[in-house]
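From the methods appendix. Each design record in this collection lists the tokenized structure first, followed by the designed amino acid sequence. Records were kept in a plain field format so they could be parsed without special tools. The example shown here is representative of the layout used throughout.

RECORD:
FOLD TOKENS (736 positions):
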């Protein structure tokens, strides 16, 4: 019935009669901007976009006429016409955080519960839920509201348990929140310690807020727990206090924010709000000149109702972190900030790989093969092998009968990425591929060459993979070279596995298919070069040069399909460096519309590999825009330097920082190891000992030390090789 019934005519007629544009015509016009493809857009992305904009619509209804409320930091900035983050709302139906998408996850290794903390200490314990905030309200004068403060000092621990401390000050008032997850994987609890100091009598306020760093998150019911030592939120989520408050106050939407009712002499024990904007506050008397500390605990799973002793919970979580970091590749450099970012990045990767691996704790808390390949590669290169193989074991369950490694439809890079990272695991660990992988790998390799288009069409995309949505950040559906480079890598990996499984005929067949695809890429690039009149490589055979050309970097890093000085590669780098950089960061016009940390580091890797010293300018730029907790969002606003796209803590970016540091010390090229080619002059001038290791390579593990003898650097290394020591080349700065 769906095929023959005239739905299009009915939809058109209804739209015209009600004065709307013809939706069928609009969709048809939209499709004209992209190449014909099997999937117009991945359902996963459409679903994510729908959720974001549904919230954005709620934000527009809740925020702009309630600006007397206390809102999260991004709202206080983005809605302030005197702030550089201000965005006019005018005809925008949805209002989304586009200027300060920054947050940092807390948790325990192996546990998939991720409370997040925003740049001013707002804590969101549950996924996409309500938040806890803290204020100091003096009996006379201006209140200390962290989200309204221009400055805050925020730190993340890189030793012991993972915790985030946020300090704000105003007129000698001092407020600190320290958030962490304590307990075990089975009993995780978000603990928030709040300390306040005021030179005058004040109130230390703990407030429950119906929002998080994305915007509104509905709260309909808040009531005091038995004994008044906390709240029960929506009859389901307890918030436990360690101390009775001196006053409790509640409010619902029509009465305004609870903040406007403080302090109050009313005696209330609960509130209900049919709008979903209930707020609550617990007030603690803060005596002049005396500090006061309050501790809250929010169970992240349903725990027994009986009160248990939590005395050993902090030690339990700290031990979990200590164990998770055993065997990691350690770094010692004279730049404290670079050192901190490296240590923080390793913690970020560990936290986000409980069973699968996630590129973020919030809106990206889902699995994609693309992100997984880059993150797992970084984890392998710093010695986190056990965590990697645990994730790889999940891959076959995500494969279709046809052999497609599916994370979302319409993206043809996933098979290459999955096969490549499985190969990297075997190469970097020296392990033989497990027999149980064989069927999955065989089907995945066949899927790639069957998916390629006929090579005799005479069109620029002949023999390439079909048009698709590719890496999402390259533009509308097209025949992206990114997919083809991954296709070649995947076929090479499948051939490697076939040889390991003693299937020589299949290995030769896959190698031939890889060479065939490589030849089709080269032929397409020859046609493209004539069209654009230069050897640089655009995103697809049908595109002009734009920021989407960043996808070409895959041919150099991480795949090393092309030599480091390939003219096509260097000309593409030249275009990107001249046309797509802001403050030495790669500004990506496609979707991200901001400085992209991980793509900037991809470009830096290509510069490093080709011996171009500008790599360190890019590294330094990315280090500068990291958050105080050592994190990067997916994309960074060029003015506010806050997140403007994606998750506020992007694990792929953390992985690229780790890989950048690793390759500065040791990288592989043409069956040899190159040491110290990325050690900058500034570090050498410090004349302090540097070290890195033990670092896995395809030849075995290596530990590198740079010491100074008679003011001159001396590079030393020790190896735990799979067989004999490989050829090793030391490339320190020529000035030394």
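DESIGN:
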């Amino acid at each position: 019935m769906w095929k023959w019934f005239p739905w299009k005519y009915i939809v058109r007629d209804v739209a015209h009669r009600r004065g709307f544009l013809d939706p069928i015509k609009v969709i048809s016009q939209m499709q004209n901007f992209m190449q014909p493809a099997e999937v117009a857009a991945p359902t996963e992305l459409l679903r994510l976009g729908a959720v974001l904009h549904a919230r954005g619509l709620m934000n527009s209804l809740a925020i702009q006429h309630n600006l007397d409320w206390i809102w999260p930091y991004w709202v206080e900035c983005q809605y302030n016409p005197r702030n550089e983050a201000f965005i006019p709302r005018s005809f925008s139906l949805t209002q989304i955080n586009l200027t300060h998408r920054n947050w940092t996850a807390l948790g325990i290794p192996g546990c998939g519960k991720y409370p997040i903390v925003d740049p001013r200490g707002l804590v969101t314990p549950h996924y996409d839920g309500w938040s806890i905030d803290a204020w100091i309200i003096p009996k006379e004068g201006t209140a200390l509201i962290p989200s309204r403060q221009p400055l805050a000092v925020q730190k993340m621990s890189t030793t012991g348990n993972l915790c985030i401390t946020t300090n704000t000050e105003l007129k000698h008032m001092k407020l600190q929140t320290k958030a962490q997850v304590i307990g075990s994987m089975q009993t995780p609890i978000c603990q928030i310690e709040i300390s306040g100091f005021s030179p005058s009598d004040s109130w230390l306020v703990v407030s429950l807020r119906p929002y998080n760093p994305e915007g509104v998150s509905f709260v309909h019911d808040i009531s005091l727990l038995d004994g008044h030592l906390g709240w029960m939120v929506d009859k389901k989520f307890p918030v436990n206090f360690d101390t009775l408050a001196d006053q409790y106050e509640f409010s619902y939407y029509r009465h305004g924010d609870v903040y406007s009712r403080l302090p109050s002499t009313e005696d209330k024990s609960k509130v209900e709000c049919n709008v979903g904007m209930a707020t609550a506050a617990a007030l603690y008397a803060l005596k002049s000149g005396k500090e006061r500390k309050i501790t809250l605990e929010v169970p992240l799973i349903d725990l027994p109702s009986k009160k248990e002793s939590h005395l050993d919970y902090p030690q339990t979580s700290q031990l979990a972190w200590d164990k998770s970091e055993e065997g990691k590749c350690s770094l010692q450099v004279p730049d404290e900030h670079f050192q901190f970012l490296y240590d923080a990045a390793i913690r970020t990767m560990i936290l986000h790989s409980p069973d699968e691996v996630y590129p973020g704790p919030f809106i990206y808390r889902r699995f994609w093969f693309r992100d997984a390949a880059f993150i797992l590669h970084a984890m392998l290169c710093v010695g986190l092998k056990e965590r990697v193989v645990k994730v790889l074991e999940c891959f076959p369950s995500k494969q279709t009968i046809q052999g497609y490694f599916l994370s979302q439809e319409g993206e043809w890079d996933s098979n290459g990425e999955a096969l490549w990272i499985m190969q990297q695991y075997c190469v970097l660990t020296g392990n033989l591929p497990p027999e149980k992988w064989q069927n999955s790998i065989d089907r995945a390799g066949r899927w790639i060459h069957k998916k390629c288009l006929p090579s005799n069409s005479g069109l620029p995309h002949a023999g390439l993979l079909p048009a698709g949505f590719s890496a999402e950040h390259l533009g509308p559906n097209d025949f992206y070279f990114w997919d083809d480079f991954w296709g070649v890598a995947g076929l090479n990996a499948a051939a490697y596995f076939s040889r390991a499984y003693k299937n020589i005929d299949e290995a030769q067949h896959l190698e031939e298919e890889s060479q065939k695809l490589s030849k089709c890429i080269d032929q397409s690039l020859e046609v493209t070069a004539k069209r654009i009149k230069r050897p640089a490589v655009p995103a697809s055979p049908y595109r002009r040069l734009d920021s989407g050309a960043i996808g070409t970097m895959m041919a150099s890093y991480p795949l090393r399909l092309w030599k480091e000085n390939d003219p096509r590669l260097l000309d593409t780098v030249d275009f990107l460096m001249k046309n797509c950089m802001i403050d030495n960061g790669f500004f990506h016009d496609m979707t991200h519309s901001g400085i992209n940390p991980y793509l900037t580091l991809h470009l830096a890797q290509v510069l490093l590999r080709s011996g171009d010293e500008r790599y360190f300018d890019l590294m330094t730029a990315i280090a500068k825009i990291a958050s105080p907790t050592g994190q990067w969002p997916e994309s960074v606003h060029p003015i506010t330097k806050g997140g403007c796209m994606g998750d506020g803590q992007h694990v792929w970016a953390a992985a690229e920082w780790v890989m950048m540091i690793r390759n500065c010390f040791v990288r592989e090229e043409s069956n040899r190891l190159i040491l110290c080619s990325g050690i900058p002059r500034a570090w050498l001038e410090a004349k302090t000992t540097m070290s890195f290791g033990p670092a896995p390579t395809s030849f075995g593990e290596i530990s590198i030390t740079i010491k100074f003898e008679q003011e001159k650097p001396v590079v030393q290394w020790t190896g735990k090789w799979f067989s004999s020591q490989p050829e090793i080349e030391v490339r320190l700065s020529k000035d030394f």
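APPENDIX NOTE: The two ends are 77 Å apart (CA to CA).
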